[in-house]
Design a protein that fits this description.
It contains 16 helices and 25 strands. With 554 residues, it is α/β, with parallel strands linked by helices. The strands form five sheets. The chain has an eight-stranded parallel beta barrel, surrounded by six helices. It has a four-stranded antiparallel β-sheet with strand order 14-13-16-17. A four-stranded antiparallel β-sheet has the order 18-19-24-21, with no helix packed on it. The protein is globular. Bound molecules: (3S,4R)-3-hydroxy-2-oxopiperidin-4-yl beta-D-xylopyranoside. This is Beta-xylanase.
Length: 554
Amino acid sequence: MSVHSSKVLRVLALAGMVAAFLLPAGSAQASASLRTHAEARGKFIGTALATGPLSNETSYRTIAGREFDQVTAENAMKWDATEPSQNQFTFSGADAVVNFATQNDQQVHGHTLVWHNQTPGWVQNLGATAMRDAMRNHISRVVGRYADNPAVVSWDVVNEVFEENGDFRRSFWYNTLGESFIADAFRAARAADPDARLCINDYNVEGINAKSTAMYDLVSELRGQGVPVDCVGFQGHLATQYGFPNDLQQNLQRFAALGVQVRITELDVRIQMPRSAAKDATQATYYRNVVNACLAVTACAGVTIWGFTDRYSWVPDTFPGEGAALIYDENYQAKPSYTAVHDALAGGTSTDTTPPTTPGAPSAGNVTSNTAALTWTASTDSGGSGLAGYNVYREQGANDTLLGQSTTNSLTLTGLTPNTAYQVYVRARDGAGNLSAGSPLGTFTTPSGPGGNGGCTAVGTVQNQWNNGYVVQPVTVTNTGTSAISGWTVTFTLPPGHTPAGSWNATLTVSGQTVTARNAGYNGNLAPNGSTTFGFQVSRPNGDTQTPSGYTCA
Ligand code: XIL
């Protein structure tokens, strides 16, 4: 654990974790707190704290202390709170959070030292030399104040330095100092507290996309230069209408391979209001999936939720019409999302033996010689572990084959055999692994392949989207001919106002709204029935919900 161990060990001892580790995972009672289960798994479970209710509301303090073993100041450690005028430092809010954490055996993650938001105008208007000096001074004073405090173990050194397309954000920091402010900030933080774990933090980096890949490249480069980046924070501000980033675990794992700690730093899952039982259930699966991804990655230290009660959440103010993003309601009643986090952390103790309801028969649209787009009526799950997804099977008598899995009630099958009749059915899975009965059969027949002249198909899936952009990943390109091909071209049309913002595994050229994707050097060769994938990201006007459909391959 290197230089960080001293602080971590002190906090573990404070938290009484030594005893918790002696218990087999899951031996705690089902009603035990989130932190009891998290500690037994060697992870933290945290919350952001707002100073108002922290000083005014007993229920707030009680739950925050009982359920969480890690805290982050929601606003109290930001620059506008700690250094509103140059060299005038105020730590009243920050100290209140640190004192609460100390009383409750919680570790504190300092948030955040260098950010383009909530930073006073006097900083933004400085010239380059003065700005760099002010940044170093701020880091030295804020980090220095808690350097000997055993509760404060980590810091977000820089926050949100990337644009959605992976470019550096054109913030006043970048515009005045260039990208070197990032390395400078980390070095200043290390000098101020050699034991603290130093993190870079951002949003929309949960899945594998242009922005997270830019983050990955930067962390790799900085560490190669000896810049002390110890940890990467994935904020996790999710919204049920944009889908779950299903490659979260894979993404955490690729960062872990760089040698950094990873953590979920600001998890919330907003819904489009009003609340309903169905939306609560969907939200719970998102919470469960995030916790499970962290549990599955050794280098993931834990999960911090951005608050805990819907009574105090930034979501309704920031995303009009959306809300109810947290695990307790506004009256401090635990929601299904609390149970989901609890049961995921409790791991293996689930007593859910109730399978989901049987899904509807799959119906096939857009059948090509190698692909078919299936949709079916969704299942529901009442056993407590929540609906996890679906398995799609081909009916073949005694030896049915699994054709694919999906987390939603649709799936595009690829790699099908041309000129073949298929009978398929779907079974739903819950979080405890219970499988529903098979749905009624759906049938379709693939047409003949285009022959030996190198035909191909392309099928795109929207993996992740947000207000003004989305990621299409994967686009699966399949050689449907009977002889090998050595290159492919996929064409599609973007809705008006949409512009590409990066791609991987293909080169894009744009003419008007028509986009042409050509294979990269390494993925043009496809054997008959062989396939490869590429992906791309698109910017779109705020509030536009369109995405492209209809990919043609040649
Ligand atoms: C938010 C707070 O929750 C709000 O109270 C405040 O008004 C604005 O900032 N990314 C971050 C957090 O890193 O600091 C932000 O917190 C949410 C987005």
